Amino acid sequence: MKFKERMQLTRRGYGLIKKYCPGLLPAKVSATVADTLLPFVTIWFSARIINEITGDRDTRRLAIYVALTVLTGFVFSMIKNALNKVVEEKESGMWSYFPKIFSDKQLSMDYSDLEDQEIQKQKQKAEENLFMFGNGLAQLVWDTVGLVQAIVGIVASVSLTATLFLSRSGNAMLDSSLWIPAAILLIVIAGICTGKLRKKEEAVFEKWTDGTVWFNRALMFFGHTLYDDLSRAMDVRIYRQDRIADREMEKLNRHNRNDNGIIQKMSAYSTLPVLIQGVCNCLCYVYVVAKAAMGAFPVGSIVQYVGALIKLVQSFAELVNANSENIIYTEHLQKLFAYLDIPSKKTQGDHKPESENAHTIEFKYVSFRYPGSEQYVLKNVNVTITPEKKLALVGANGAGKTTFVKLLCRLYDPDEGEILLDGINIKEYDSKEYVKLFSYVFQDFKLFSLSLGENIAANAEYDAKKAQECIDKVSFAERFDEMQDGLETCLYKAVAEDGVMISGGEAQKIALARALYKDAPIVVLDEPTATLDPIAEAQVYSDFGKLVNEKTAIYVSHRLSSCRFCDEILVFDHGEIVQTDDHTTLVDNKDGKYYELWNAQAQYYL
C-alpha cells in the first residue's frame, strides 16, 4: 500500500474515532505529550543539580534547581493525571461505541446483503480483528501514543544532546565530527531492524488470524451460545447435545495446541528489538563516559547526555515502529472500510406518500428469486390491494407467501415486473417514508429486554396513554395489571434481575400491540400466532380485524379457518397465485387448491 493511501485511511480512521468517540484522541495526545516531556525535564534539572554539587556548590542556585525540579514534576504530573482520567473514561467507553459502527452499517445495508454469506464473513472478520485483537481502529488509537512519543522524544532528545558533540575533550578522535553521522547511522539501523522484525512478527500473526475465523465461530457457539441461549436450553438437556459440544471443544483444544509453535515464533520476533536497543544504549553510554573522562563536560552532564541518547534511540525506534504499525493497522482499516463501503444497490427515490390511509398497491408481473438461487420463489404475480381491504395469503410451506410480503415492504426488490403504490413504482419513494406505511408482525417477531412501554412503542420515549389503549385492545390488560411497575416493567432477565418472563402467547399480544401503536395505514401479520391453537388464533385474527377496520390488512396463515373474515384470499402454490376469491366461493370449488388445503385441515376437526 502506498504512503498516500495509508495516510488517507489513517485520516479516515481518525474521523471515525472522532465521530463515535469524541474527545478521546485530543485527550490522549495531550496526556502523551505531558508524559513524554516529564522525563526530559527531570533529566535536564538532574544534570544541573549534579553539576552544581560537584562544582561551585552555590546553595541558592542549588535550591532553585531543586525547587524547579519538584514544582515542574508536580505540575506535569497533575496535568498528566487529570488528562489520563479523561482518557481512561473515554477509552473504556470506546469498546461500547465501536459496536455501533457495525450496527449503524447493518441498519443502512440492503436487507438482501444481510443474508449474503460472503458479506457476513467479511463483517465477522472485521469485527474479529477489532474486538479480539484490537487491530484497526483500536490499534490506531493506541499507536497514536507511540507516534506522539516518538516525535516529541526525538525533538526533546536532539535538543538535549546537541551540546554533546560540540563539547571539546582535547581528544581528536572523540571530538571528530564523524560521530554525528555515526550516531545517526546507528540509530537508523537499530530503528530499521526493529521495524523489519515487527513486520515479520505481524506477518506470522496475520497468517495465524486468517485460520482463526472458523476457530472463533466454533468457540463462540460450542463454548457459549449453545448453553447460554435459552431457546436451545431444553434441546441441549433432553438430547444431551453437550456431548457434541465436548467433541467439538476437543477439536478446538487440538487446534490451539498446534498453534504453540507460531506463538513462540512471534515471541522471538518481539524479543530481538529489545536486544538491539540494549546494544545501542551500551555504545551510547561508553561514548558519553569516555568524553566526560577526558574533561569535555561536567560529570552531571553524563546523566543528561546518556539519558537523552537512550531516549533518542528509543524514540527513533518508536517512530519506525509507528510507521510499521501504520502499515499494519491501515491494512485492517482497509478491510473495515471495505465492509462499511458496501454500497446499497436499492434504488432510492424522493417521493413521499401523499395520503396517510388511502393507498392502492399493485403487483404487476412480479417475479423474484433469492440472491444466489436460480429457482424463482414468485413467478408472474399480479394482484391489486385496494384501501381498507382485508387480504389473506394461504398456501403450503415455501409457496411464496412470506416472500410476497417481504417484497411488499421492500425488504427485497423484484427481479422482474414492478410494485406500484398509488400508481408510482415503490422504487421512486423515499424508502424510510415508504416503510412508515407498514405495521408488521413478523413470523419470528422479537421482543427485547427493555421495558414493556419501550417494546410496544419501539422507542425510548412513549405515550403511556396510547400504549395502555393498545394493551387493552389486544386483551393483555389482565396480565398487565399483575406487573407492579406497569409500562416500566422490564421484559425477560437478560439485563434486569427483576425482569418478567412472559409466555409465547403473551409475547404475541405485545407484538400485536406494537403493530397497533405504530398506527400505520397498512398492517401485515405474517403467522405471528403460529403457536396458538386454531380457535385462539382465529379469535386473535377476528378481533384484530375489527381493530384495523379502517386500515388495509394482510394476513399470512396456514390455518384457513382464520381467513374466513377476510374480503379476499390469495392462494399461493409454487410461487404463483392460483386462486383469488372469498372463503365461501373458494371452498365451494372442489377442484381448486384452496379446497384441497381446507379439506386437509378440516378432516382433523370432523
Describe the overall structure.
By secondary structure, the protein is α/β, with parallel strands linked by helices. The chain has a domain of about 350 residues: Up-down Bundle (ABC transporter transmembrane region fold), CATH 1.20.1560. The protein contains 21 helices and 10 strands. It has a 6-stranded mixed sheet. Strands 2-1-4-5 form a 4-stranded antiparallel sheet, with helices on one face. It is elongated and about 120 Å long. The mean pLDDT is about 85.
Q: Main β-sheet: number of strands, strand sense, barrel status?
A: 6 strands, mixed
Helix count, per DSSP? 21
Shape label: elongated
CATH architecture of the domain at 3-340, by name, is Up-down Bundle
The percent range for strand residues is 5-15%
Percent helix: 55-70%
* Secondary structure category: alpha/beta
Mean pLDDT: 83
Calculate Rg over CA atoms. Answer: 35 Å
- Uncertain regions spanning at least 5 consecutive residues: none
Main sheet: strand order? 6-7-8-3-9-10
CATH topology of the domain at 3-340: ABC transporter transmembrane region fold
Count of individual beta strands: 10
Task: Report how far apart the termini are.
Answer: 74 Å
The first-level CATH class name of the domain at 3-340 = Mainly Alpha
